[in-house]
């Protein structure tokens, strides 16, 4: 004995078989180095002895705690071994006597062989397979080292009847819950670069990666243009990273990494499987195509926000926007949950009149930060609200029978149509007169000519330039003032003889429907005489008794009446022919 808690007995040259006293245990730091001492395992009620080099300087046994060797959480080790004898179908049936006998004999041998593994719980046969006979069994114990498992395997023939013909030892151990398998990123999209990393707390000789897409069996992954493998092995640790560049949907499926150590008697495999799903980076919602008035004060104050969104929240998601169009209005990028936003900075200086109605394409591109990206085009049609001006050849009023021109001009040369309307009270009527309207597309000018004016042309003239759904208008009000038309002035007489110094009744009449008070004068040989209005039936008449005092000779005189309206415009009647008799 070398210490009060440790009992050691000599066992060959410079070696001893040591065990801990009751209530004590080996520290966890030496757990993986413990190799059982005797060629045959002790009885179930005896403690296990382990080989120690002499002289022995520790570490020594310590009072048993939850952290001591053998007190850890047991793991399951799936194992198999081959028996060199023919397979019987009864071994497929767990109720058969042969199955029960094989199971009982093998479990007895396995439990005896593995009981000195730290933290050993049990060894259980799980089934048989052809070839010759492959025995599947599981061992539950603390995580064991390669040498510990190999040593326990070497003990099996001592506890198994020779009838089972355990051939040249062909043990395989597979451990599935001791590998740290990570996948980055967690959400994987087509085009991403994906890293799968496996790590174990053991030194391994070989690392192999497999892929299965659910249709084909596991395929070994080799280095290629899209696959790279990194392996790092150090004392007590092994890791491997599989990098897949520009991943595709076909790369979905299960990935298996295996770390392998082999000897003549044992093949130890650390195995872990993870499944990945590769999805398209799909933009599921985005701004509709827009039509915007880029010189509208309201639009400039409340610029719209374009957006593109995917179907899930990704912390690494970023968005980029590209602008392509004659009107180069840019914006500010903002990330919002699973969307990228682009708040337009609309300014009138970028809204050129000659570019009104053109389309600017905004391309949003969403990126995962790992290589995958997806884009969507959003079309924005920019319209400039036209500044339309209308001018008149007359001030605001024109008399019936006179003509006038209205000129309408827009600062936006790109338009679909120009229309003219007249509004009188609540009534709006479209001007449909091809001969009256002349339009110059190049200068964005339209001229409406009215000649002669009648009361039908009285009202507010509206000129409208239209581009798609955007209308820009200007208006001017023209008052058509009543003035009799020359042909509507009735004369009495049309011609007559007039005696010297004898009065002659002259009369001119118009319809009593007029709404204007006229100034009316009779004009005889350039002499004007103001006359008064008299109602005669359905007519308004203006009589005058004319006396000629200059009677030197026979001659023909000319007389007519002149109507003057409120704006000073006038019309003369036809002439009355007077033959002077001296």
Automatic annotation (TrEMBL):
GO terms for biological process: adenylate cyclase-activating G protein-coupled receptor signaling pathway. GO terms for molecular function: G protein-coupled receptor activity. Keywords: Immunoglobulin domain. Residues 169-274, 386-477 form the Ig-like domain. Gene3D superfamilies: Immunoglobulins. InterPro entries: ADGRF3/5_N, Adhesion_GPCR, Ig-like_dom, Ig-like_dom_sf, Ig-like_fold, Ig_sub, Ig_sub2, Immunoglobulin_dom. Residues 71-188 form the SEA domain. It holds the Pfam family ig. It comes from the Eukaryota. This is AGRF5 protein. The gene is Adgrf5.
């Amino acid at each position: 004995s070398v210490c009060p808690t440790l009992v050691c007995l000599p066992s060959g040259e410079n070696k001893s078989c040591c065990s801990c006293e009751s209530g004590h245990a080996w520290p966890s730091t030496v757990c993986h180095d413990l190799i059982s001492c005797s060629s045959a395992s002790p009885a179930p009620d005896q403690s296990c002895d382990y080989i120690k080099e002499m002289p022995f300087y520790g570490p020594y046994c310590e009072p048993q705690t939850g952290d001591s060797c053998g007190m850890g959480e047991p793991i399951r080790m799936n194992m198999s071994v081959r028996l060199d004898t023919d397979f019987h179908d009864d071994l497929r049936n767990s109720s058969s006597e042969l199955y029960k006998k094989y199971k009982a004999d093998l479990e007895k041998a396995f439990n005896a062989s593995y009981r000195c593994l730290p933290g050993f719980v049990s060894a259980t046969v799980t089934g048989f397979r052809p070839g010759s006979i492959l025995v599947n069994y599981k061992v539950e114990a603390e995580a064991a080292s390669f040498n510990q498992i190999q040593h326990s395997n070497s003990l099996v023939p001592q506890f198994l009847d020779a009838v089972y013909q355990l051939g040249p030892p062909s043990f395989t151990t597979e451990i599935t819950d001791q590998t740290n398998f990570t996948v980055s990123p967690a959400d994987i999209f087509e085009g991403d670069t994906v890293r799968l990393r496996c790590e174990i707390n053991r030194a391994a000789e070989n690392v192999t990666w497999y892929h299965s897409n659910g249709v084909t069996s596991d395929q070994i992954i080799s280095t290629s243009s899209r696959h790279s493998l990194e392996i790092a092995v150090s004392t007590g640790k092994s890791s491997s990273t599989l990098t897949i560049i520009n991943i595709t949907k076909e790369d979905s499926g299960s990935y298996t990494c295996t770390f392998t150590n082999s000897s003549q008697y044992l093949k130890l495999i650390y195995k872990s499987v993870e499944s990945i799903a590769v999805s398209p980076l799909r933009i599921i919602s985005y701004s509709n195509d827009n039509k915007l008035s880029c010189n509208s004060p309201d639009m400039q104050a409340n610029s719209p926000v374009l957006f593109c969104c995917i179907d899930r929240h990704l912390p690494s998601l970023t968005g980029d926007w590209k602008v392509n169009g004659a009107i180069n209005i840019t914006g500010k990028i903002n990330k919002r949950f699973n969307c990228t936003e682009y708040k337009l900075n609309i300014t009138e200086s970028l809204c050129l009149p000659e570019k009104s109605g053109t389309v600017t394409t905004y391309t949003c591109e969403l990126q995962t930060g790992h290589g995958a990206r997806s884009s969507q085009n959003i079309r924005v049609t920019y319209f400039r609200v036209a500044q339309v001006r209308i001018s008149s050849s007359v001030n605001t009023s024109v008399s019936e029978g006179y003509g006038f021109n209205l000129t309408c001009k827009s600062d936006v040369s790109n338009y679909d149509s120009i229309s003219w309307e007249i509004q009188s009270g609540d009534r709006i009527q479209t001007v449909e007169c091809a001969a009256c309207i002349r339009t110059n597309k190049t200068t964005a000018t339209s001229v409406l000519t009215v000649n002669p004016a009648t009361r039908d042309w009285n009202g507010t003239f509206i000129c409208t330039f239209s581009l798609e759904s955007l209308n820009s208008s200007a208006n001017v009000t023209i008052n058509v003032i009543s003035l009799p038309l020359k042909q509507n002035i009735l004369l009495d007489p049309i011609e007559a003889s007039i005696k010297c110094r004898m009065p002659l009744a002259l009369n001119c009449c118009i319809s009593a429907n007029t709404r204007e008070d006229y100034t009316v004068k009779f004009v005889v040989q350039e002499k004007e005489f103001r006359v008064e209005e008299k109602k005669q039936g359905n007519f308004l008449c203006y009589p005058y008794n004319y006396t000629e005092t200059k009677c030197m000779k026979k001659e023909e005189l000319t007389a007519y009446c002149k109507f003057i309206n409120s704006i000073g415009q006038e019309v003369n009647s036809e002439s009355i022919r007077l033959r002077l008799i001296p």
